[in-house]
Amino acid sequence: MSYSLQMYCRMVLHRVGCHLLKKTHNALGPPIRRGGAVYSGACGFREEEIREKLQAFPGGSINLVKQESGIALMTINNPARMNAFTGTMMLELQDRVSQLEEWTEGKGLIVHGAAGTFCSGSDLNAVRAISNPQDGMKMCMFMQNVLTRLLRLPLISVALVEGRALGGGSELTTACDFRLMTEGSEIQFVHKHMGLVPGWGGAARLVRIVGSQNALKLLAGARKVDTDYGERIGLSDGTVTLQSAESTALGEAEKWVSAFTKGPAPVIRAVKKVVLSGRELPLEDALRTEKDVFGTVWGGPANLEALARKPKHK
Ligand SMILES: CC[C@@H](C(=O)O)C(=O)SCCNC(=O)CCNC(=O)[C@H](O)C(C)(C)COP(=O)(O)OP(=O)(O)OC[C@H]1O[C@@H](n2cnc3c(N)ncnc32)[C@H](O)[C@@H]1OP(=O)(O)O
User: Where in the cell is it found (predicted)?
Assistant: First the structure.
């Protein structure tokens, strides 16, 4: 076959391949599918198996209030155990994330702990009972799925840290867009002291938040992060101080996040989506996602109303 015929055939095959790839990409939508889990049956993850095991460890709850303001409050509630995650709380966290994925008016989320402390990680009684490698890996995959979906919610999320955030509790803080800490609170990745590394996705997210050197210090040193150090390395986005005798840390956190959720829900949710794809996707995928999301707000009610107002951004 002559060279020019070879080149022609290669060009045709290349064009057909690109066309099929483009059709597949458009059909599947952007790589970050709503509620995109990391592990599925396709990679041997049998969720029903771990759900059954986690059911055997009851106690505590994950409470959720979806407010008129568009800001939801999620409470890690197991105060007798410093808000440690029992098995049923892990399952409830998955249910609450599913509810938030369906909340189309939502704009923000504050995750906090009951009784003035954040969360002391997995319930050690449950951990001891599923300490074999197989069950440990299944729990790890389950919690990675749930926390990845939490971070990917089209809501601006804040972890409000009061008291202590330890182990899995420190990992939970990294599954929010922002972290606010109260005076005297501490975030500590204690995993090394447990002979472990993070398993709920906390290491992967921590590197993206504070950089690999700081992540190494926090994990290899199991270093306590207080408000000053947290702000210095970028793990904390602010220290919550009570403005009056009546104010509460939760109220101050709501004021803080409200600065970013003011505006129509479709626009705020679109902002989170384009930042999320910029954070997670290769450039060209992120650009395509941005184009898709732009198309949902361009000429929409908020855009047309703003144009009619002849806005002046003082
Ligand atoms: C992927 C990581 C993940 C995993 O591997 O699955 C983990 O998160 S492993 C768990 C990591 N967390 C810990 O190791 C924290 C252990 N707890 C503590 O260090 C301390 O309790 C504290 C959180 C620093 C608080 O100390 P203190 O103020 O002195 O209170 P107490 O220690 O007396 O605690 C009160 C009460 O709560 C129970 N508790 C606390 N944390 C847990 C926990 N993670 N699991 C189960 N129970 C917990 C503690 O036992 C006390 O109960 P009583 O003994 O009945 O009084």
Answer: Cytoplasm, Cytosol
